[in-house]
Amino acid sequence: MQNSLFIILFSIFSFIAADNIVLRPTNNNTDPIALIWLQGALVPNDRYVPLMTKVQNNSTSTLWVGIPSFPLDTPNPLDIESVIASTIQQLYQAGMPSTAKLFYGAHSLGTVMVQSYTLNTSLSNAIGQVLVGGFINRSYYYPSMSYTVPTLTVGGELDGLARVTRTVAESYYQFNRSGVSEDLFPVVYIQGMNHWQFASGEPTEWVKINDLEPEISDDDAQAIASNLIANYIDHIFQTTQNPLAARKVSLPVSLRKAVDATIDFILPIIQAYEVEGSRHFNAPNQIGGPGEKTCVLGKCSDLSVWTEHAQSVITGTISAFQSLNITNNYVLLSSEEITGGQHHLPHITPDNSTHILSITTYCQGDWELLDKEDTGVAKTSASEIGSKMASRQCSIINSTGIDTPFSVDDPNFCQQINTDAYDFALKIAGDRTLKRFNSFGQPFIFGLDVPAQAGPLWINERLSFKSVTDNTTGKSAIQVSSPMLKTEKDYWKDHFGPIPRPSWIPDPGCYHYCKLLSPARAMEWIYVDGLRAQKSNIANCTNCVDSDKSWCWIDGQCHDSTSNPCSSSQCVSNSTSVCACQSCVDPTCAHSS
What we know:
By secondary structure, this protein is an alpha/beta fold.
């Protein structure tokens, strides 16, 4: 229905489009190259002239640029061939030789449209492409990388639409996993840049609502981006000039440094997703993952390390045993024999000869619906990890033989484990990211476990994220609360008395189930979403300081250095020593009042 409406609208308005833009090269150093650049949704194509001009100035190649204009200023699949063809024809009419190599690039929605067009090399004749504020679609990742056109992927650290966890971290991880050449498929991030800064002028309303505030000026952002784009185009062009050396030329130094810096930046993100056992990273073989078809009777081969950690918290220290052997698998939590699957329930196995207590656990992830559409706007981490684990009571009884009361399961273990996830993310997050989050982020706090009355009810309940006022700080926070289900050892006898348990009903005792916060969700909150509720004045502060004035955090205004009403611990300036704050993301100053 949506696709049909999309086609109808663009058929009606296909005549409403501005002119294509042609930018002639600024030098004649080499054989000609053409860069065809596609606009983002509702973004007039002239908004990219400043960036494209900088790309030409930074390139050592003879670079022509064509910026097509789509109906309604929005790239669409119906018009892409004709609009690109008309743009190339205009380049020829402007004097571009017919021998020019063709390169493609795009921003935002344009990246979605251009990559399928570019991949058809018999149509596009592409030697490479650049995607900014966008990425190669996941459909090309699994089971192995099937995208063949060399591509530079560029993401802004503070991109609120094509989030850095998707654009940069996931793209890099998948390229690296597939073994594609980093020289042909580099992924880089730009520190402090947001989504809109690849374009110029007034942002669209959609961008205003969803983007994050940048920490660098528009000029600085485009200077960095244009240098990366120009260097990559020159790099790929060089590989086409000598067939024997093709695809063996290493990245230029500036790009190599950018890639190395990007790897350092995304390592904490990747680590958190791996601990989750993410369907988009290291655990595709799970319900809802691209490898779901490999699961048998509702049981999958991949696992969540975080559920294993959770079981160790619930079990605690058992002196009679030297070690715990906890295993995990992703499953369909609702799987049962009556529906053609099988029950997946935690199980405890003590080995008195080796003093090893083995516990099997099971879990299933859940995600935001829009993550499946792979837009970059939706969170890509699991919204929860529903984990079936064994109770502390039965862990102790099975390992020691000592009768133990069910009260040992009274602590709010789910709350404790969720706090661990948040603390883990805070501990490994990058220093700059952590400073920003401490200054402007909305923190997580953790509520008590919420008991569920039965297994099916627990499966259908979701980890809760509720906006509250933190009683400790008096500031806005998100309270995370976990649905929990626990059963004592003799659950059937205690609840059903002398009624025999049917053989087709598994023993319902010895369980402690939690809906867990994923460390990756905590990390994504710190890097992206936790910054949304309290949008800062970072950009205004940066522009103020860059103009040698002083920024006051109390009134949110830019002042002459001598007239700032803030105290020294409440203002930022490069021009006066009166202000103690070192930068616009210095948390000790920004919140000292």
